[in-house]
Write a structure and sequence with these properties.
Distance between the termini: 38 Å
Radius of gyration: 17 Å
Number of strands: 7
Strand content: 5-15%
Largest sheet: 7 strands, parallel
CATH superfamily: NAD(P)-binding Rossmann-like Domain
Number of domains: 1
CATH topology: Rossmann fold
CATH class: Alpha Beta
């Protein structure tokens, strides 16, 4: 019987792959036998992630790139496609956050957050999608949303705008590309413990509030996203497009 969750023979680009959620999802795709192109602007961190995932048996390729360089995305995609072959999956895990009350939001932070979290994923998918359409190969584009794609959380106005935009982009690309065999979906993580969020969990009051909102009673760990990533990348989700898959311990259901 065919393994509908297997990714052998497919190449997946994962942004934000040097740490945290991106690295965990890249590892899950690699263990499902995809070749994984690891992308991050920090070459040293990326090399460390590549060594860690290679030791687990993953087939990885390192391609450092700063997604804020929007004008260079087309060339980077063309070079990567030429170097490693057709790109079947792209998983947009790279993101930035600047927490501040709305009255203190700085224009520079707004611009940076929207550029990295929304503009760069759209244009990266645009360039990969063009080549997939030209090749007639189909593909899977996986965006990463947020609880703030759906609900208001204080001090996240810029981030929430970017992630609400991600959900809109997913729905739009899904209907544009469905007949071309390209599926577009999103994973929405809840609160996860990573290097970037550890300060939140060290704040006793904030941590208690977070945990009180999660029906499963615990924060997520990066490995909790692996199954969702493999599902959306694989033939197991061959009739799924435009979906927003919540991986949040039940937060949004409560």
């Amino acid at each position: 019987m065919n393994d509908m969750f297997g990714l052998e023979g497919r190449t997946a680009v994962v942004t934000g792959a040097s740490q945290g959620l991106g690295k965990a999802m890249a590892g899950a795709l690699g263990r499902a036998r995809a070749k994984v192109v690891l992308v991050s602007r920090n070459a040293d961190d990326l090399a460390g992630a590549a060594a860690e995932l290679s030791a687990l048996g993953c087939d990885v390729v390192v391609k450092p790139f700063d997604l804020a360089n929007i004008d260079d995305i087309q060339g980077w995609v063309a070079d990567t496609w030429s170097d490693v072959g057709p790109l079947h999956v792209v998983l947009h895990s790279a993101g930035v956050q600047r927490r501040a009350p709305a009255v203190e939001v700085e224009q520079a932070d707004w611009d940076r957050i929207l550029e990295v979290n929304l503009k760069a994923p759209l244009f990266l998918s645009r360039e990969i999608g063009k080549l997939q359409i030209e090749a007639g190969s189909g593909g899977s584009h996986i965006f990463v949303g947020s609880l703030t794609s759906n609900i208001g959380i204080p001090n996240t106005a810029s981030y929430a705008a970017s992630k609400a935009g991600v959900a809109a982009v997913v729905r739009t690309l899904a209907v544009e590309w469905a007949a071309l065999g390209i599926r577009v979906n999103a994973i929405v993580p809840g609160y996860f413990r990573t290097q970037l969020t550890e300060a939140l969990f060290q704040d006793a009051e904030r941590s208690a509030w977070i945990l009180s909102r999660i029906p499963m009673g615990r924060a997520g760990v990066p490995e909790d996203l692996g199954g969702a990533a493999v599902f959306l990348a694989s033939d197991a989700s061959s009739y799924v497009t435009g979906a927003i898959l919540n991986v949040d311990g039940g937060w949004l259901a409560g």
